Amino acid sequence: MRAAPFAYLRPNSLEEVFAALAQFGDEAQLLAGGQSLMPAMALRMARPGVLVDISRLGELRGIALEADALVFGAGTTYSQALRSPLVAEHAPLLALAIPHIAHEAVRSRGTLGGSLANADPASEMPACMLALGAQVVLRSAEGERAVPMEEFALGTYTTAIEPGEILAAIRVPLPETARRTRFREIARRSGDYAMAGAALVSDEAGEARFVLFAVSDRPILVSGAPNLDAVLAGIDTEVEFFPDNHAGIATKRHLAGVLARDLLSRSALKEAA
Amino acid sequence: MNDMTRPIGRAMPRAAARRHAAGRGRFVDDIAPAGCLHVAFLRSPHAHARILSIDLTAALDLPGVVDAFDGPACAELCKPWIGTLDHFPGLRSPEQHALAVGVARWSGEPVAAVVATSRAIAEDALDLIEAEFEELPAVTDIEAALDPEGVRIHENYDSNLAFRLDLNAGEPDAAFAGAAAIVERSFRFNRQTGVTLEPRSLLADFQPGTGELTVHHSTQTPYQMHDVYSRHFGIPEERVRVVAPDVGGSFGLKLHVYGEEMATVAASIRLGCPVKFIADRYESFLTDIHLRDHRVRARMAVAADGEILAMEVDDATGIGPFSVYPRTSAVEGNQAIRLMGAPYRMQSYKGTLSVLFQNKAPTCQYRAVGHPIACMATEALVDAAAGALGLDPLDIRRRNVVPDDAYPYRTANGYMLEGLSHQACLEKLAALMDYDALRRDQAEARARGVHRGIGLAVFVEITNPGPAFYGVGGARISAQDGCTVKLEPSGAFSIAISITEQGQGTEAIAAQIAADRLGVSPERISVVSGDTRTTPYGGATWASRGAGIGGVAVMKAAEAMRANLLDLAGTILQASPEALDIREGVIVDAETGTERMSLAELGRILYFRPDTLPPGTHPLLTVSGHHVPQGYPFAFTNGIQASHVEVDPDTGLVKLLGHWVVEDCGTIINPLLVDEQIRGGVVHGIGGALFEECNYSPEGQLLSTTLADYLVPLASEMPDIRIAHVATPTKTSPLGAKGVGEAGTAASGAALLNAVNDALSPFGAVLAETPLSPERVLRALGKV
Known about the structure:
The complex is a heterodimer. Helices cover 33% and strands 25% of the residues of chain A. Chain A is of the alpha+beta class. Chain A has three domains: 7-52, Uridine Diphospho-n-acetylenolpyruvylglucosamine Reductase, domain 2 (2-Layer Sandwich); 61-173, Uridine Diphospho-n-acetylenolpyruvylglucosamine Reductase, domain 3 (2-Layer Sandwich); 181-266, 2-Layer Sandwich (Enolase-like, domain 1). In chain A, the strands form four sheets. Chain A has a five-stranded antiparallel sheet with strand order 4-5-10-6-7. A four-stranded antiparallel sheet of chain A has the order 11-12-13-14, with helices on both faces. In chain A, helix 10 packs antiparallel against helix 11 (249-264). Chain B starts with 14 loop residues before the first helix and ends with a helix. Chain B has three domains: 15-24 and 480-627, 2-Layer Sandwich (Aldehyde Oxidoreductase, domain 4); 31-136 and 197-250 and 253-287, Aldehyde Oxidoreductase, domain 3, CATH 3.90.1170; 290-467 and 631-780, 2-Layer Sandwich (Aldehyde Oxidoreductase, domain 4). Classes of the chains: A alpha+beta, B alpha+beta. Chain A binds chain B through residues 1-5, 39, 43-44, 186, 188-193, 195, 245-248, 250-251, 253-255, 258, and chain B through 118-120, 123-124, 127, 280, 282, 650-653, 691, 695, 703-704, 706, 708-709, 711, 713-714, 716-717, 773-775, 778, 783-784.
């Protein structure tokens, strides 16, 4: 199929983006890496009236180390993040997860901000950012606000982004003590959407965040980590499982348990990066 | 034939590979004549629905739209077709139209066409068509289709049965009554589809001035389609031309008649303009033929010593709402039910085949037609029998394969096997894979809690089909093939062949065969194929017949040309033709090898100075050869495959550790291409057994319509595939070559299924449904 007709704008600044969003309202659709949006448009499942291309905006680029956080411009591509020494040092979870995202061609165009804003429940980045306790920086003509990941992903393809707002940056807090991370996803072929996935971040103080993805309508922070039994209990009571083409609810639930046992076993916690 | 200096038997890459790697392929979509229009189709949103009205007015008003028409309008130009053949007695299927008339019978069936100056505009116009449907109850499940009280898809038929076949050989009842063990399985093989890199593509160009229709078509069978276009559009055969340019994969899906293609031709005739249809991936999933939708109940009786006494098989297969034209949708089930147990001495058999209509996309012939079904059912039962008797899987096969000295041999189901080599292949495989070492590794790994499995699958494969395949049933599908050889003045040759190229190397092996007989290097042979106006008429490439049949036509033409050239050289050189030979482009003294004259010199004389020839010499410098198999209806090949896997009982994931094939396709023309055909075929079979599934909702909506949902095998998951050969040249052909294109696909899935079940045997888990998804593995393990 070919995309339905649409207009195309490439603003040169965030100010121009806000103006475009104000002018076209619901008709406008931001284009970042386009790795989800373009196929959806080609299938005519997405039919934006005006495509606002933010992929070349310098204001959305770059990975910066601030005093209390590692800050990603929303336009940072997966490949850029994967190659970044700052990521390797301060957010190695992302370096563990990114190789699981589709294939090289997709990773070189797809962006962190795009993944979060798209809010596909099977995506790796929202889960990792939730595990890392990240905040999403939303900017509009009126100013900016920071939303914790827990409040950002609201459901399948649904986020806390309000009309007129743009996801501008992601702030990953720097840990006070050394952080260990683990990541695993279960997929039928390399590069496929996971049937189930999990990310784990733990610190030396014994705090841990265990996040499941590709099992529900959003990434789920399961309570009780690093205690395995508590997490298994949490999986039973806190997660509303959603089926997909490759795994029904029972399979998703089973795989969630497999991931928890794997990531939270004593030896695994010791081995974590 | 193993002379390494001769072109036959030499491993050579095909010349076209370099051109394609450089991005210089020329596919249908690369052909863009001035004024070319594009077509898009409105499709039934329902699996079964009455078409109440289709209003094209708003679509026709959209700027850029040139034409729009529905089923009845299309039928004014294009005669409907019926997908039955006489050699399947009782097979029935109603008239099928290019665009549905009255009732739509699968979700995605085309119901109207829009022609516009671009495909995008045509798709925009589809949104403006006002179509009203009355949804009817759909039959999607095979068991539901069997239900005599259930919904009928065709009002005039008393049931959804398209074809039924009952086979009975030997004394199956007595065999089961006297068996030491009886093993039984209920299999479910879920629908797949073919996924060619290049989708179905067509450029129809009707010239009103001359009444001539030229179709550039991504097809395996240009001659068949030439005939179809001529008859269904009432255009004299000599006014039709079908050209297959580069074809990006076919696997059987590009030899059937599809409504979209016929409607595109109708559009070109309506408008007198070139009209192009390039299927996109979405409509490929919806309307390309699907395949292998079978529910098989099978059991096997074995004696205490492991002898397979009998099989009893009940196969019900869903083919969609129509039997596909012109080859029918009965062939897959027919071959599946007849190939059960074919490698083994077993002489008692009872088989029932039910071919059923259902409201899903039509199914039809695809690479290794029916073979994977027969092979998976048979080989799974052989493993089950081995388990029941405490025999090793390799051992039970040793005890049961038809011995190599027993040929010719007639199988329980009546197939005549000319000369196979199961025993030799089996022993070669055991050595190639080091079977005993893998068994030791398996035991050692199990002790560590790692679950590895080894699966074997013996197979026979139907190749080189003669007229018994389609012609006797009334199909205008040629069983013979032809080749024309032309001497060029430089001493090079050009050949025109009726077998066709879809990336497998048909042209390369044709050049090798011609070069072998003409005494030149293959580089000096240029090849034309895929154009019904410039090549001899033939059956083309399908059913593993290109090399075995078309190759002999090339051989015959080249030998005739060689005889002519030696005659003429003898005349010029005052030598007896028998005393001369052609080697490396030079006419030599056959005994001493002394150069007498080059082919270039001969060509110069023959074309530019024929005045120097003796009076009355009229050289024939373009000659043809044709070939059709006679005697045996098919040339069967055989082989054995082995799969080595590791199954994760927690996740249900299957990791492929290794795959081995020993195969016997007779004379090998090009070992490189033969091995790549086998590798590609193995991957195809693995795809079907492990990943690929056309997933429908109960209402008949196809859910897997993208390559993110329909999982094709990727290189990243494939194991190393090691291949060895046993060569038993077929005596049915002077070339000795049998087909090889489907051998890999026939048995790789069966080997994989057996390997997975072997890995899971400590848990008592048995899988009998493909693809072997993690969910099905976990279900078999009782974990979900």
